[in-house]
Design goal:
Layout (H helix, E strand, L loop, with lengths): L2 H11 L12 E3 L4 E2 L19 E5 L10 H9 L4 E4 L2 H4 L3 H13 L8 E6 L1 H10 L8 E7 L12 H11 L1 H7 L11 H5 L4 E6 L14 E5 L12 H13 L1
Parallel strand pairs: 1-4, 3-4, 3-5, 5-6, 6-7, 7-8
Antiparallel strand pairs: 1-2
Helix pairs in contact: 1-6, 4-5, 6-7
Length: 249
Amino acid sequence: MGRRDNMAFALLRLIPPQGQVPRSCGLLSSSARHPAADGNISPGDDNAPAGRPLIVVFHGAMSSAGNSEPLLQALSDAGFPVVAVSYGHRGTDGLARCVEDATAHVAALLPTHRPMVLIGHSLGAWVATQVAFDPRIMPQVRGIIGLAGVFREPARPLSLAKRLLVRVFAGKAAAEFVSGTLAHTGIPPEAIVSAGIPVWSLRSTADTIVPLSCSALGKVHTIAGVSHAAMARVTAPVVQWCQAIAVTQ
């Protein structure tokens, strides 16, 4: 990372991460790696409940795995094996580096040979689509769920001055998003739908960070009154979608 990108990560060090990954869930990150307390999500282990896909959750930019604590717990309580992935220095690295990091973590889960559902909040939704395109991973992906997901950039990129501010204070990935780089990075998320992988998008009319036009992919469900940050903690529709996938897989 460059100095400006490091500044964003350095600022994050001053802000305690919100929430924690429940002990019933696994965590994969560059600095820490632990299985679930009951051992059912350790890479290479296959003791999770039969007939349930592995749920892999990606945080957004300037975020951390624990931000989705209520969702992680709800999925675990519903009987799903769950693992949260922390990538790209809390999503402050560039888009390509975020995808590389996240893909490496998910690839480590492949010895389980377990079907997966990928869930991403904000930038994590785009990262999930890119991870799903990895030829080692795609055969295991049964669905993708975006929560206020970033699937395409705004129609009008921000000014240069504003982009520089975003890069300094929010990191390179966010800066690339607001500068219109997303369309030229990786594989278009729409190709996931064309590949036959079901995609669900949950978005909110109260989201002031990601425009509604950027967060629509596949089957779209719009709710009201939930902020962008709080979308990472929405539980009921996400659990229902995962249950529907489990029935049809």
